[in-house]
Design goal:
This protein is mainly β. The chain is built from no helices and ten strands. The protein starts with a strand and ends with a strand. The relative contact order is 0.31. The mean pLDDT is 97.
């Protein structure tokens, strides 16, 4: 059974930083493109960053230059370093494998981790 466990969220002031982690189990982690999604209150879940099995990253325009996605295949873990955080980054953040050729997730969602950017 696949498990995705996100951690590292919290309350941070605008301009601050957080590093999210997602530990995966029950899957062959290294073969998947992995992604970080977020869902703000009243909004649909969106994919904000992805990293291929080979380590190539991609970002939505709203986070380019501020967020960095990385992965450690030996630890079955994907990370999201978030800098220069803005109030509009407030959301629950989730990781998942991404279905090839789509923005859709492969597995059931984990519990997510709450990120709140506020002064």
């Amino acid at each position: 059974q696949v498990q995705l466990v996100e951690s590292g969220g919290g309350l941070v002031q605008p301009g601050g930083s957080l590093r999210l982690s997602c530990a995966a189990s029950g899957m062959i982690f290294s073969i998947y493109t992995m992604g970080w999604y977020r869902q703000a209150p009243g909004k649909q879940r969106e994919l904000v960053a992805a990293i291929t099995s080979g380590g190539s990253p991609n970002y939505v325009d709203s986070v380019k230059g501020r967020f960095t996605i990385s992965r450690d295949n030996a630890k079955n873990t994907v990370y999201l370093q978030m800098n220069s955080l803005k109030p509009e980054d407030t959301a629950v953040y989730y990781c998942n494998a991404i279905r090839t050729g789509t923005r859709n997730p492969v597995f059931n969602w984990g519990q997510g981790t709450q990120v709140t950017v506020s002064s």
